[in-house]
Amino acid sequence: MEKGIWKFVAGLLFLFLVLVGFFSGCAKKKEAGVITLRWVSDPNPLRKEQIERFEKVNPGIKVNLDWSSGGMEKILTQTAGGNPPDLFDCYTPEQLRIFAKKGAVLDVTDYCKRDNVNLRDIIWPQCDDYIYYQGRVYSIPTNAGTFVLFYNKKIFDKEGIPYPDDTWTWDKFLEIAKKLTKINPEKKYYEYFGTGINNLENFLPWQYGVDFYSPDGKKCVSNSEEYKEAFRFIYDLRYKYHVTPTAAETENIGSSVSGWGQGEQNLFASQKLAMLFYGRWGIITMRKIKDLEWGIAPVPYPTRGKRVTLFISRSTLISSKTKYPEEAFKFLKFLLSKDYNETIAQGGDSIPAVISLCKSDFFLKDPAYPKETQNQIYIDAVSYSRPTRLSPYFNELEVERIKKDEIDKMWAGIQKPDETLDNITQRVNLLSREK
């Protein structure tokens, strides 16, 4: 009898193990059926929500964020080594051009045609250089951005100065920046400076009607008198008028803010700068500062020129060596959806690249942020914005290295603006592929 009971128990145990193995196998099969994509992007806090929204509408696909592999060189190295990310972000038109030339990115033109994705009908035209190479589609924009003038309302109110508006010229801007550079009564330190100057060099020369390259793109012409005039103005804001801090003063001022953003943005968030030239993504940090009240205005314009500002974008590409091109393209199409662009609009990650969604109430009138009533200014700025122009005759990465090298010397006091631009022009033209 006892022996029969043990046989019965053993039989139940065997059946239990079989069933466990069966369901375990089913679970493994189910897990094996999930496609996982690796997305190399930045550590913006919004990425988590964006991934969650994508996975919700694509239950068979998981996306792992990898921000440690960011940068063009790392992506190219991983691609050459046979371990490329499935998806990766591109931050400049030159990066797109290099990825495409090296065959590291998937041409998705035919995918777009198959799924009736007509980007020219729905995306800001200024995004073109972030999407196309030699007429083919290689990426989908993840956001767009225009540079505007941020200002601290409390500082303006304290000094009794009206807020900036679309009538401001650079003369008016300088006049106000002087008034808003405040030294404490004992003159031991600056309470705040009138303005930041980062990003000005990227678009101010355009306002004087000049470009970095000649019209045919074969020569660097940054040594023109108009270009030098623009650079002298930027230089004088720091060294002649002292309405913006030097690098050493910036370190001494410090910043009480940490998180998404750096440099002048954090100084503005710490209320050490009264004005700042920046894009809407800056509000990701600004929203965290409870006592910070800011507004925005169009960038000023010269009395004998026109208002122009910088347009930038970020786009996502698919690796040419991905094992999952169809699933990766689903992610790219998701970037065009209202679901995704709500995260851009409401999260403050600049503005949607999809034109119609920029004009929607969820961007212009977000009830979660009732004080942010000026979002139309970002949109209006698109009409007078432009991306940085590339030349097929120059390696833009080398050009950027030269520019940084010479401009760093200018800010270090080694050379003045005119010499800086003469050096840049000479060095860049030595790189020309047009001999």
User: What name is given to the CATH topology of the largest domain?
Assistant: D-Maltodextrin-Binding Protein, domain 2
Poorly predicted regions: 5-10, 12-30, 256-261
CATH architecture of the largest domain: 3-Layer(aba) Sandwich
User: How many beta strands in the DSSP annotation?
Assistant: 13
In CATH terms, the superfamily of the largest domain is Periplasmic binding protein-like II
- What percent of the residues sit in helical stretches (DSSP H or I)? 40-55%
Give the C-level CATH assignment of the largest domain: Alpha Beta
Sheet with the most strands, sense and barrel status: 6 strands, mixed
| Overall number of structural domains | 2
What is the overall pLDDT average? 89
End-to-end CA span: 101 Å
* SS strand fraction: 5-15%
Rounded to an integer, what's the Rg over CA atoms? 27 Å
Polypeptide structure, described:
The chain has helices at 2-32, 46-57, 72-80, 93-101, 109-114, 119-122, 128-131, 153-159, 170-179, 200-207, 225-239, 247-253, 264-269, 283-286, 325-334, 338-347, 355-358, 361-364, 375-382, 396-411, 417-429; strands spanning 35-40, 61-66, 87-90, 132-133, 136-137, 139-146, 148-152, 182-183, 190-192, 275-278, 294-297, 309-318, 385-386. By secondary structure, it is an alpha/beta fold. The protein folds into two domains: 36-146 and 311-386, Periplasmic binding protein-like II (D-Maltodextrin-Binding Protein, domain 2, 3-Layer(aba) Sandwich), CATH 3.40.190.10; 148-309 and 390-429, D-Maltodextrin-Binding Protein, domain 2 (3-Layer(aba) Sandwich), CATH 3.40.190.10. The strands form four sheets. Strands 1, 2, 3, 6, 12 and 13 form a six-stranded mixed beta sheet that branches. α2 packs antiparallel against α16 and α10 crosses α11 (225-239). The longest helix is centred in the first third of the chain and has 31 residues, at 2-32.
